Amino acid sequence: MTYKDLYVLIPSHSLEDFPTELGDRPAEGLLNAWSVLWHPALVAAADDIPHWHRADDPPSLLAGRLVVVPPACDSMVTSEWINTAREAGMAIVSGVHERSALISAVLEPLDEKPDVPADLVADFIAFGHLHLQTELLTRHMRQFGNIDDDRLRNDATAAARAAVAGDESACRTHLKHCFEMLLESREKFYPVSCYLIDLCLTIPRLAGEPLGHVLDDDTPVNLMGTAEDLAEIVAAHPEYQSTIRDRWQAGTLEIIGGEWAERCSTLLPLDAQVHELDRGRKVLRELFGKAPSTWGRRRYGLTPLVPQLLKRSNYHGALHFVMDDGVYPDEEFAKLLWQGADGATIASYSRIPIAGDSASAFLRFPVRMAESMDHDYVVGLV
Question: Of 154, 187, 220, which marks where a domain is finished?
Answer without folding.
Answer: 187
